[in-house]
Records
---
Amino acid sequence: MKTLKPRTRPTAAEALAIAAETAPMLPPAQMPAADRAATLNMRLRESTISAITAAAKGRGLTIKQLVVQALADSGVAVTATDLEDHTPRRRGH
C-alpha cells in the first residue's frame, strides 16, 4: 500500500506572496456582502397600530409597504424590493 507524502499548507503570508507572484495585476477577490432580509420588530400602542392598519388598507398597501414608503419619503435609503408586496397568497383564492 502506498503512503502519501505529508503536505504542509502555506501560511497566510506565503499564500498572498504566491497569489501576487501568479497574478500581480489582479486585485484581491472581494465577495460582496449579501443583502439578506431581516426582521424588525417595534412596540407601538394599539391605537397607533390601528391607525397604521387603516391608512394602509385605505391606500391598498400592506403595513410594511406603508411604513417603508414613509421611511423612503423621509429620506431613508430603502431597497426597492422592500417597497414590494411579498405577502404569501393562499392557493385557490
Note: Residues 46-59 form the longest helix (14 residues).
---
Amino acid sequence: MLNRNFNKTKYFSLEVLILILIGIFYLTLPNLLKQSWFSVVVWIREAIHSGDGAKLFLASTSVNFTYALLSFTTYLWSLLLVKFFFTNIGNSNRRLLIIATYLIIRIISRYLGYPVEVMLDFVSMIIILLLTKYANMNLDRISTEVIISLQVLIALQWTNTMPAMSAVFIGQTDLPVSIKISGAYLDNTLVQNMISLAFMVPLLLSATMTSMRIRANKRMVAIYEENMQKAKELKDAQTKIMENRVYKEVNAMAHDLKTPLVTIRGLNSMLMLSKDMNKLIPYSERIENAVEKMSELISGFLYGSHRQKITSGELINYVRAQVPIDNELINFDFTDINENLSICGNKIRLSRAIINIIENAIIATGNQDTRSISLNCVRVNNDIKITIMDNGKGVEYDKISHLFDIGYSGVGSTGLGLPFAKQILEEHDGSIHIESELGLGTSVIITVPIYEE
C-alpha cells in the first residue's frame, strides 16, 4: 500500500512538473519570438521599398509558424491539464473541457499582450474536435492527438495572411494586417491568397487522412479483438464438448465394466451356495478372467500408450457390442471380416475410434428411406484395412479436408469424433482416409499395421 501511494505521489509530481514547464515555456515564448517578429517588420518594409513579393512570403511564413507555435503550446497545455486532472469524466466532456480551457487561456493571453486570433482559435478547435471525434480517439495516446492538432493549427494559421479571410475577422492582429496591407499596396493579393491555400489545403487534407487512418486502425483492432474473443469462446466451447466426450467415454467404460462385475458377483454367489469343491477351480478361473478383463479395460482407458496383442476379430466384435446393430431401421453389414489378423494396440481406444466413425454414419443416414452401414476388414500387404461405408447424404469434395478439424462436422455432430479417431490411428502408426460423393454416401478407410511376432 505504501509503495502504491508513493508511486501515485511520484506520478502526480511528474504531471505537475510537466505542466509547469509547458506553462513557463508559453509565458516566455513572446520574448523568444521578438527577434523573429522584428525580422517580419524588416521584411515588410523591404518589400514595400523594393516591390519584392518574396519578402512578404518570408514574412507570412515566419508569422504563421510563430503563431502556430503559440497556439500549439496552448493546446498541448490544455490537453495535458485535462488528461492529468480530469480522469473521472467521459471522453466527450473532456474534449469540450480541453476546448474551453484552450479558449480561456488564449483570451487571457490576449489581455496580456499576446497576438491572439480569437475567431481563428475557435474555428481551429471546432475542426480538431470534429477530426478527433471522427477518429474515435481517447486521451490515452497523446502522440496521435499531437499529430492531428499540429497539422490543423499550422494549416489554419495560413488564413491569417490570406486577404480573403479578413471579411470573417481572421488575421486581425498587427503583423497579419501589415502583411495584407503591404500585399494590397504591391497588388499581390491574389498571390497571397493562392500561397496560403497552397499551404493550408494539403495540411488539412493530411490531418483528415490521419484521422481516417486512426479510425480504420481502431476498427481493425476492434475486429481483431472481436475475433480473438470469438476464438476464445470457440475454444471454450470445444473444451466443454471435449469434456462431454470424456464423460461419454467414462459412461461407456462404466457400461463395459458392468459385465465382468456382474459375472464376478454371480460366480461368487454360486461359490457361496455350492458344496461341490470340484466347481471351485473353474469358478475361480472365470472370476480371474473377469478381473483380468476389468484390468484390461481400465488400463486401455487410462493409459493411451497401453498396448496388447489382439486379433481383428476381437476388435470388431468389441465394436459390434457397442453399436446398435439390432436397430431395425438400419441395415448393418459386418459379414466381410477377416478375423485372424493380429494387431498390437490399445483395444479400447482403437474400438472407440471405429465406434465414432460408425456413430457419424448413423447420423449421416438419418434422412434416408433405407439406411445402410457396412464394415469390412481385409488384409492389404502388411496392413489391416477397415472400411466403414454408409449410404448417407455424402460430403462435398472441398469440405472433406475440413472433417478432421476440431469442431467441424459435416453431419451435425460435435465435430470431435473424426479428429479423435485420426489421433488414435496416428498413435498406432495407422492412417484414416475419407472418400465421399454428394448424394451417394461416404466411405471411411482406416489402416493399422499388422503385428507379426
Note: The CA atoms of residues 231 and 431 lie 29 Å apart.
---
Amino acid sequence: MINTWLEVAGAAFDTRLQGLPAFTGRASKSIRRLLAHHGARIAASPESFLVEGLTGALVEGELGRARAWGERLSGVTASEASSRRRQAS
C-alpha cells in the first residue's frame, strides 16, 4: 500500500459564523477525524476562522490569524521533512 512508504500530513480548518460552535457548527473537528482515520499524520490542531453573515467575508483580524496558522503549519511540515531526510541519510 502506498501509505506504507509515503507519509501524508494533513490539517483541517473551516469557516463559520460567530457564536457557540454547538449552534454554528465546526466542521474542522470532523475533517480532522476523517484525515486521521484515513492515515494522515495530523500536523496541527483543527482551526476555525470566523466569517460575517452569509457573504463569507472574514471577520476583521481573521485573515491575519489564518495566515499565521498557515505559516506555522508550513514550518512544521518543512522541518519534519528535513528531519526525515537527515534520518534517511
Note: The first strand starts at residue 9 and ends at 10.
---
Amino acid sequence: MKTKIGTILNEDIVQQLREQAAKQNRSMNEIIHDALTFYFQASQTHKENRRRAVERLCSRPFNLSLNEINDILEEDYFEQ
C-alpha cells in the first residue's frame, strides 16, 4: 500500500533530484523511495555492526583487531 506525503526540500536538492530522474529515466518518487530504503537498511546494518563490536569487546576484552578498535574510537556517538 502506498501513502502520499508532502514535504519541503531545498531547491538545490529538488533540482538534483530532477536531473537524476531525467538521466536515469525514472520518476522522482522512485529515486526518493530507493534513497530512503537504502538509508534505513544502512542504518540497521550500522546498528548491528556496533552491537556485534560491543558484544565482542565485552565477551573477549582486547581480542579486537587494531582496525576494529580504531573504528570504534572514530565513531561519532553524538550523531546517534
Note: The mean pLDDT is 85.
